[in-house]
């Protein structure tokens, strides 16, 4: 995972770590186990491999796979049809990541995504 992706991912875990520690986890490994379980079940969590793909799309204009392309194009029906068992649960978190992290011209419609990928200037 890139440093930026790890930083963004870790920001989302700060409160969960504090909550796990307050819940009386016995040791650091147990806290991490609790966090991993929470991440997998939290619909607002964005999986690290998705974050990395979105960052490559944003910074290097590298096309994503079909599922993420549908998300970026704001096509919920196609995104749901293309999502695997993990990503279907995390569509809200993936969209939230796009909303808060990606520049507006990079996503939201098929024409915006096509234009973003066609541009050669810096993001």
Structure description:
- The mean pLDDT is 80.
- The protein folds into two domains: 1-42, no CATH class; 44-123, no CATH class.
- With 123 residues, it is mostly helical.
- It has helices at 3-22, 28-41, 48-60, 66-72, 76-82, 85-89, 91-101, 110-118.
- Helix content is 70%, strand content 0%.
- The longest helix is centred in the N-terminal third of the chain and has 20 residues, at 3-22.
- Measured by DSSP, the beta-strand proportion falls in under 5%
C-alpha Rg, in Å? 16 Å
Mean pLDDT: 80
* Low-confidence spans: none
Total discrete domains = 2
Number of strands: 0
Instruction: Determine the oligomeric state from the structure.
Output: single chain
State the shape.
Answer: globular
Helical proportion, percent range: 55-70%
How would you summarize what this structure contains?
This protein is mainly α.
Which properties best describe this structure?
123 residues; mainly alpha; 2 domains; 70% helix; globular
Topology, please?
Layout: H1 3-22, H2 28-41, H3 48-60, H4 66-72, H5 76-82, H6 85-89, H7 91-101, H8 110-118
């Amino acid at each position: 995972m890139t440093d930026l992706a790890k930083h963004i991912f870790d920001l989302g875990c700060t409160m969960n770590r504090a909550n796990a520690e307050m819940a009386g986890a016995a040791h650091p490994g147990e806290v991490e186990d609790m966090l991993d379980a929470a991440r997998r079940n939290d619909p607002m969590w964005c999986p690290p491999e998705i974050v990395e793909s979105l960052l490559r799309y944003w910074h290097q204009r590298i096309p994503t796979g079909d599922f993420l392309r549908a998300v970026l194009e704001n096509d919920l029906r196609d995104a749901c049809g293309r999502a695997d068992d993990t990503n279907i649960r995390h569509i809200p978190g993936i969209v939230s990541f796009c909303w808060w992290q990606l520049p507006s011209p990079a996503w939201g419609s098929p024409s915006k995504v096509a234009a973003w990928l066609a541009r050669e200037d810096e993001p």
